[in-house]
């Protein structure tokens, strides 16, 4: 049986561990053969394939990124199910393992509905997929953000400054929540919870008054309570000024002006999604890769692997679609006890 | 309300994060007061207490070990429930938070039965407690062991050597299982699975034959299938020779003799349990500390906090006692697919 | 003999190791006593002192920042030599150890000329002081920047993107040079070497043409050959547009537009100067702290400690002043061999 | 011009960065061609070569070990100069770059004397070569040992234990000296300085008496003042007992017995020499690799590259031979100020 693998969407530490585990398991237990599609769905619709046997995947678990390359191409822009079926047939490929986020899974669902044999592996560095407790990449991102905040804190303490770390999270605040809690942040600002600038300044001042240099973790998608979508449409920032930089850069001068505490912001950016995955992510990704082969063996087309507690389970694509897994109120309230 | 906190048993990254979160939460939300008992149950029976307010716990989450000190003292050796009650009364302490492993929880259960108000926080670097998915310290240990194996692998590859990493795990193989899987080990040897030296050599030779330097993760409590308890009683090693060093040191010359592959063993030892906790462990420990305060508020005496999926729950002490959480056959079989 | 210690200017990993080593050595060998001035020269002119004995400095070597706090205050703004002498006399302080960069050493020189007993310890995260081979903090900054670029590279490779890392270095390019060389950057852009956008794009394209995702290390103070000081005076960026963000953010869209390679920039910012120092920096800082006590014993007022090869030497303040240690042409040419 | 490269002796982080830089520089600037000899001198005498062009060396700087493999084979055991010349001629190789330690350089000198064109790159993780300030690998080893001691310290503090870290250094104590100083060890025991068990216990007790958990860094080659070579010949340990384990394991029970302080030893072993090199080592190794090409261009046969201060220089092989660079008394005395 010949299987094609593709990785799609933003890169994420652990992708290579999924690929390696799937290939090793399929070859060893079931005599499967594998090819890789280059650059996500683009490689599928273009028929751009690369060999994928033991030599290609040896030792890659600890490597960040994906040896297959990735893109944000949607297969339905390039021919859809018909074209995918054609490329698969031309290359003797019976089934696909699609590793990707919500967009990929949505496309995979449509292809499954059209009769293509696909199993999915969820990928979201933001931890925003509903159907799984966690997926790989998130733990690495949280660890990198936490390490960065540990470093920022010593500078804050030495200079008596408020330090802001802007982390990933356009729509959900999981990375900010976990890294902020791990680093002992005095405020955690997430998209799910609009907050007033007055409240933020109160937290900063409270920390300062207890002799601490305030540390604030803010997700890139956070909005002040005074902001509406019109702001970003008009190119204005959180304070109605022409927008320069991200939310961290917008907050810093405002906090400084209101509290008199010198404030600096750092945007962690792409370093959060690259490089060697944590052991946690490598284990999870490896288990996902192996479970994807189980899915294929069982003919679980249209399902993706997922983590529930300590178990890997198989859930329909649609369970992961349609609604983001946001930070629930209870988790925010829990974290907020330690603010200020 | 005044609460006493103690940490007992081997140290573990995350203990300080539990203490900090409990103290902050109790003070901030419920006007509680805290004292620390020094060196585990020893401090309780000796009445050796230290102040525990915000200044003592500020910034300690990222610090390994425990600011309270720890010991393996059993409270029933030093007076039992009566003495514990006496010390609590003398110091105006109404309830205890006991952070420890199976021994501590067993003692805590007996004290609870005798009317002492105790809530527990599970601590096991080995991941061997039944009632919780994970507890803090384990993730850090796995990460350290994985990093070490990543390093050993490059030496193995350069010299064409078989490298053995002996990791913690006297009775259960969780650390070996996870770090070995993360590092791509060619064999993982755990106490739950007696294995023959022939099988181990076969895995090593299989890896060598594919051009790889074999990497073996072995838990300190692993036993060959030819070993029985009599071996260690008589001071003999796995091969009936006078025992020198741990199982890794015993395996190395035997593998080398049988396969002709130069073999070296490294015992990671205490570095696995100290130092800065991972972000994962800090988040979990912080949530445990906060949940312990909820337990007290709810009067959940005789219960410990535990992780189930992504939720913190409260379970009776006895659920964690009596049987170790061993590596199940299914998890071992899953990992074994990648051996050799 | 009573000694005052102060740390001045931007914080830097290793400051605490200097303080600890000086205090331990002075107390142990020479029966000295120490006090710390809070927040640099500000604490000196304000008479704001804190105790500095063994308990305050135990275990602080591995802590980033400075337990004394720091500021950019100039002592001549707050009363000058007279005021400094007065505060020293009031507190029974005979000599000062001033840990700081060029500004601090310049002030220290003027104070020495006015009769104040001062020895210096050079501090520059940028490696821009002439009289010493290296000083502490630089190695840590280079390591952090290198780790970040290792991470960025995997994202670049996965997406076929050009990744830009903007590192510290307003006036000199040492951090960019070393981290760029360590990370295998395809271009290193430093203030000492104005470069054309055409040349930068050529390097990026050359890397791309060999199948590599281009990685560019740029110091924050780098200027294109078309830029003059007038640009920044007028608030314009490298391309004559209203200035948004740093040089990395300015280069990214231009490289993308000219080469067609998707390009992303990350500004590492403050994470480069905080947190646990590398072992290299801890050793150097410790040796500096001990040597500063030798300076005092020898009455080497007006001198600072410095590294020459593997030796710690004592050089006059003026040797470190007046001219920045820039990246010499030969070191740039050496690095440039590996560009493209 | 065609060049052969070999790596010989124990592996060391940075070897790959040397290889990459030499190959890139030679190809780019001088149209050279390269081949690699597999497994050190063994590959030379066996004529076992591998291609070495850009694709083989891309991205390998950050990889530990050596892609060429290494061995401890001496070329004079396998045919000597005549055989080496023959293999070189058969493969059209005009000159060799030999990367190795004292043994390699000694062999290279004899081969040079016999007319073979060789330039050397010094490799010593122990920092024991006389003719260079430092070489690559040492900084990484010191960093790993320091990180390990940082971890051990938190366990020591929590349990009130004395922790011993046995680090590499059979003949010289540089790794122990630097890592011990970086980690704030209370005693550093090195081969160059025989010490009495009474003195070691005094340091441990002094630390304990100040409320510190004693931390001891010991080089594997350290000997007590009561030990002579006869001990190891007769298989006896430092205390005249049958020898089990290394010096750390021998000291631990003796310190515990004499001081009453529970004592644990950890032998770091092979993790000190593998894995990703520090940025410092990558920069130094890269500069060495490039300078080796300069040596070839200049016909500096019989010379090796070396670091003096911040400069790369070229020194005759014999300058590196004959005498180990031991820790001088002054550096030990400096460190010893902080003991106890």
Largest interface in this structure = A-B, 43 and 43 residues
What order do the SSEs of chain A take from the amino end to the carboxyl end, as H and E?
EHEHEHHEHEHEHEHEHHEHEEH
* Number of beta strands of chain A: 11
Would you tell me the overall average pLDDT of chain A?
Answer: 95
Instruction: Extract low-pLDDT stretches of chain A.
Output: none
The fold-level CATH name of the largest domain in chain A is Rossmann fold
Number of domains of chain A: 2
Layout of secondary structure:
The structure is a homotetramer of 340-residue chains.
Chain A: E1 2-7, H1 15-30, E2 33-37, H2 41-46, E3 49-51, H3 54-57, H4 80-90, E4 95-100, H5 102-113, E5 118-122, H6 138-159, E6 162-167, H7 174-183, E7 187-189, H8 197-209, E8 215-219, H9 229-233, H10 247-259, E9 263-267, H11 279-298, E10 303-308, E11 311-316, H12 329-336
Parallel strand pairs in A: 1-2, 1-4, 4-5, 5-10, 6-8, 6-9, 7-8
Antiparallel strand pairs in A: 2-3, 10-11
Helix pairs in contact in A: 1-11, 6-7, 8-10
Describe this structure in words.
- The structure is a homotetramer of 340-residue chains.
- With 340 residues, chain A is of the alpha/beta class.
- The first copy, chain A, has two domains: 2-136 and 277-320, Rossmann fold (3-Layer(aba) Sandwich); 139-274, Rossmann fold, CATH 3.40.50.460.
- Chain A has twelve helices and eleven strands.
- Chain A has helices at 15-30, 41-46, 54-57, 80-90, 102-113, 138-159, 174-183, 197-209, 229-233, 247-259, 279-298, 329-336; strands at residues 2-7, 33-37, 49-51, 95-100, 118-122, 162-167, 187-189, 215-219, 263-267, 303-308, 311-316.
- Chain A has a seven-stranded mixed β-sheet, sandwiched between helices. A four-stranded parallel β-sheet of chain A has the order 7-8-6-9, with helices on both faces.
- In chain A, strand 4, helix 5 and strand 5 form a beta-alpha-beta unit.
- In chain A, helix 1 crosses helix 11 (279-298) and helix 8 crosses helix 10 (247-259).
- The radius of gyration of chain A is 22 Å and the shape is elongated.
- The mean pLDDT of chain A is 95.
- Chains in contact: A-B, A-C, B-D, C-D.
- The A-B interface holds A 20-21, 24-25, 28-29, 54, 58-59, 61-62, 133-134, 139, 142-143, 145-147, 150, 153, 178-179, 181-184, 210, 212, 278-280, 282-283, 286-287, 290, 308-310, 334, 337-338 and B 20-21, 24-25, 28-29, 54, 58-59, 61-62, 133-134, 139, 142-143, 145-147, 150, 153, 178-179, 181-184, 210, 212, 278-280, 282-283, 286-287, 290, 308-310, 334, 337-338.
- Chains A, B, C, D: Substrate binds at residues 124-126, 161, 168-170, 220, 264, 270-273.
- Chains A, B, C, D: Homodimer or homotetramer.
- Chains A, B, C, D: Mg(2+) binds at residue 102.
- Chains A, B, C, D: Its main location: cytoplasm.
- Chains A, B, C, D: Catalyzes the phosphorylation of D-fructose 6-phosphate to fructose 1,6-bisphosphate by ATP, the first committing step of glycolysis.
